C-alpha cells in the first residue's frame, strides 16, 4: 500500500499554483487554443459539445477542488489517482490501435474516450457515494462540507458498475452526433476498457480499498495501520486497535485487487483474440458484458468490503452482475438478428444503412466487387 506518492506545493515562487493562480491561467490558454482548433475543424457546436464539459470540469477542479485538498504540506498526489490516469491512457491507446482497423481515426477515438472516461468517472463516483453515503455525509455534516470529499476521486472510491450507465449514454450520444455505428464503436473500445480496469485495480491495491478476506496462502498480503483492511479488522476485534508501542500490521488477506487486475487483463486479451472471430458488430462488447460480471461475481466471494444488499445474501456488485448477465443475454439475442458485420479493414464508418447494420456496398458503390472482365 502506498496511497500518497508525493505532494505538490501550492505556490511556485511567490505565485499561487491553484485556485486563482498559474494553473488556472494555463487552463484558460490551453482550453482556448483547444476550442479554437476544434471550432475550425468541426464547427462551433461540435467543439462545445466535445470540449465544453471537460474544460468546465477541469476549471472547477483547479478553482475549488485542488485548494480544498491542501493538507498543509501541499496537494497530495495519490497512487490511486495516478493509476487511474495511466488506466485511461492505456485504454485509449489500445482503442486507437483497434480503431485504425475498424475505420476510425485517432481524433474520433480520443474524443469518444474523453467523454466515456469523464462520464464513467461521474457514474462510478456517484454509485460509490450512494453505496457508502454514511462515510461521506455522517450525521452532523452538511452537504456543502461533504462535497470536497465527494469530489476527491484521486483518494479512491469508484465502483466500476456505476460507470456503465453514464458511460453507455455518453457513447450513445457520441455515436448519434457523429452518425457512427454504436455496436462497432463498442467493439472497438471494449478491450481498452478492460485494460484500463486492470491498471486501475493496481491503484486499488496502492490505496488499500477493495480488499479480500483472511488468507494463509503464500501470496497473502498485510496492510499497514489505518489502512482500510486494518481498520476493518480492528473494528472486528481481530487485531488490537490501540497499543502503547508500534501497532501491528493487518492479518494476512487475499490480494483481491491484484486478482481483479489479472482477471481484467485476461478478459482484455480474450476480447482482442475474439475480434477476428466475431461475425457481427457488438459481439466483442457482448462477450465482455458476459464474462466480466461472471468473474466479478466470483471475486466478490473473496472480497469482504461490501455487505449483503437489498435483503439478499449477495453484495451490491453481485446483484448488479446478475442484472448485467440478463442484459447480456438480451444483447446476444439482438446481435443474432443483425446482418454480418463488414470487415475491419480500415474503411471508414458512417451513418445511414451501415450504422444501422445495413449493406455496406450499397452505400459505397466504389467498393463493390467489380464484374469479371474477359
Please describe what this structure looks like:
- The chain has 13 helices and four strands.
- It has 374 residues and is mainly α.
- Strands 1-4 form a two-stranded antiparallel ribbon.
- The chain has a domain at 77-135 and 146-212 and 255-344.
- The N and C termini lie far apart (72 Å).
Task: Record keyword descriptors for this entry.
single chain; 374 residues; mainly alpha; 13 helices; 3% strand; globular
Summarize the structure.
The protein has 374 residues and is mainly alpha-helical. It has helices spanning 22-42, 44-68, 79-102, 106-131, 133-136, 143-151, 160-178, 182-207, 228-235, 256-274, 283-299, 316-336, 360-363, and strands at residues 4-8, 11-12, 15-16, 75-78.
Amino acid at each position: 500500500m502506498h496511497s500518497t506518492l508525493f505532494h505538490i506545493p501550492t505556490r511556485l515562487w511567490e505565485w499561487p499554483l491553484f485556485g486563482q493562480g498559474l494553473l488556472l491561467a494555463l487552463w484558460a490558454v490551453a482550453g482556448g487554443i483547444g476550442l479554437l482548433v476544434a471550432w475550425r475543424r468541426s464547427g462551433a457546436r461540435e467543439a462545445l459539445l466535445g470540449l465544453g464539459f471537460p474544460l468546465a470540469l477541469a476549471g472547477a477542479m483547479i478553482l475549488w477542488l485542488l485548494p480544498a485538498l491542501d493538507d498543509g504540506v501541499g496537494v497530495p498526489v495519490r497512487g490511486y489517482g495516478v493509476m487511474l490516469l495511466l488506466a485511461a491512457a492505456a485504454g485509449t491507446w489500445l482503442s486507437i490501435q483497434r480503431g485504425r482497423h475498424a475505420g476510425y481515426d485517432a481524433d474520433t477515438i480520443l474524443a469518444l474516450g474523453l467523454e466515456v472516461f469523464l462520464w464513467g468517472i461521474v457514474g462510478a463516483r456517484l454509485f460509490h457515494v450512494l453505496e457508502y453515503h454514511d462515510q461521506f455525509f455522517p450525521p452532523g455534516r452538511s452537504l456543502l462540507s461533504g462535497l470536497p470529499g465527494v469530489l476527491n476521486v484521486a483518494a479512491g472510491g469508484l465502483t466500476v458498475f456505476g460507470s456503465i450507465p453514464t458511460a453507455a449514454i455518453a457513447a450513445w450520444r457520441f455515436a448519434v452526433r457523429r452518425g457512427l455505428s454504436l455496436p462497432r464503436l463498442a467493439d472497438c473500445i471494449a478491450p481498452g476498457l478492460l485494460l484500463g480496469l486492470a491498471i486501475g485495480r493496481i491503484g486499488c491495491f496502492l490505496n488499500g480499498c477493495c480488499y479480500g478476506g483472511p488468507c494463509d496462502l503464500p501470496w497473502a498480503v498485510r496492510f499497514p495501520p489505518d489502512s482500510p483492511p486494518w481498520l476493518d479488522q480492528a473494528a472486528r476485534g481481530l487485531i488490537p486497535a490501540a497499543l502503547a508501542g508500534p501497532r501491528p500490521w493487518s492479518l494476512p488477506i487475499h490480494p483481491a485487487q491484484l486478482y481483479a487486475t489479472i482477471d481484467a487483463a485476461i478478459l482484455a486479451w480474450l476480447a482482442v483474440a475474439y475480434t477476428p472471430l466475431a461475425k457481427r458488430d457488438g459481439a466483442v462488447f457482448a462477450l465482455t458484458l458476459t464474462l466480466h460480471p461472471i468473474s466479478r461475481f466470483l471475486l466478490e466471494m473473496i472480497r469482504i468490503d461490501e455487505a449483503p444488499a437489498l435483503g439478499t445474501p449477495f453484495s451490491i456488485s453481485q446483484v448488479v452482475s446478475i442484472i448485467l448477465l440478463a442484459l447480456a443475454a438480451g444483447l446476444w439475442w439482438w446481435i443474432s438478428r443483425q446482418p454480418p458485420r463488414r470487415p475491419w479493414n480500415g474503411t471508414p464508418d458512417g451513418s445511414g444503412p451501415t450504422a444501422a447494420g445495413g449493406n455496406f456496398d450499397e452505400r459505397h458503390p466504389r467498393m463493390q466487387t467489380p464484374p469479371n472482365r474477359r
